[in-house]
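Consider the following assembly input.
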Amino acid sequence: MLSKTILLLTTFALSTLSSPVNVSRNDSYGNQAPQGLAAAPACGPDPVTCRCPTGSFYQTSTSYSFYPVAAKEVTRITGHFLDTAWFGTSPNRTTGQTTTPGAKRYLWGDVPDGKSQLLIAEKLTQFTAYPNDGGYYMKFQMDDAPVKYAKKSGGKGVLAGSWDIVDVREVDGQTFMLWNIYVCFGDLFDFKGFHESAMKNVTAILKKQGKISSSAQMVGPISF
Ligand SMILES: *[C@@H]1O[C@H](CO)[C@@H](O)[C@H](O)[C@H]1NC(C)=O
Ligand SMILES: *[C@@H]1O[C@H](CO)[C@@H](O)[C@H](O)[C@H]1NC(C)=O
Ligand SMILES: *[C@@H]1O[C@H](CO)[C@@H](O)[C@H](O)[C@H]1NC(C)=O
Ligand SMILES: *[C@@H]1O[C@H](CO)[C@@H](O)[C@H](O)[C@H]1NC(C)=O
């Protein structure tokens, strides 16, 4: 099981993760970017080496867990884009259908040193249910980037884009869940802590619903 898992993770990591580089072209706001390495494309929905707009920098986080249940149980809790209760929030409003690309959710959230909460729009861009598995693959991204906001300490913060991938599938009778994000953000943000807390919530919900015993252990979350 472990080797299969590692293979799967390695394949996933190699195919989807990216690293930031220095840039030599101007960014999308028309600001002159530093002259550095060869030009990389602007960050977008394709997870390739990319550059963030001036004023923001690239951050990425990948977390995964194994749950001792069938994938359909994890899908039931996490696989509805417009239902965000499992990570402790409820959208201010939504549009579209919960598993149909184009659906949007508007979530209030805290930002580092922000004077007030920020309303962020996110759009579902891909949803694929795995046949005969009960799991799914989902991609979503900020829909209103860049969002600028006032900081308590003065000055402005900027969220210039975020791109998420969630992958839930059955592996040897357990359910593997992976959550990857990359963002262009002007401040450091603890995406790892947030995703791990949300993944632990899934276990808490499964226990509460009697889907797993109260002593059952998840493996993870593990982040890199
Ligand atoms: C990127 O470019 C800036 C400005 O030219 C430079 O100060 C910095 O060291 C470079 N960083 C890397 C990783 O090359
Ligand atoms: C980049 O920005 C600089 C300074 O604002 C400007 O002079 C230059 O023409 C821009 N280059 C491109 C390719 O847009
Ligand atoms: C986990 O659930 C609790 C409420 O049950 C919530 O307060 C918390 O924010 C959730 N964690 C995350 C990361 O959303
Ligand atoms: C959405 O946000 C607005 C503005 O703060 C608020 O007045 C409204 O009550 C919120 N609606 C819901 C359903 O949270």
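The helical segments are 2-16, 71-78, 191-208. Ask yourself how this observation constrains the way the partners meet.
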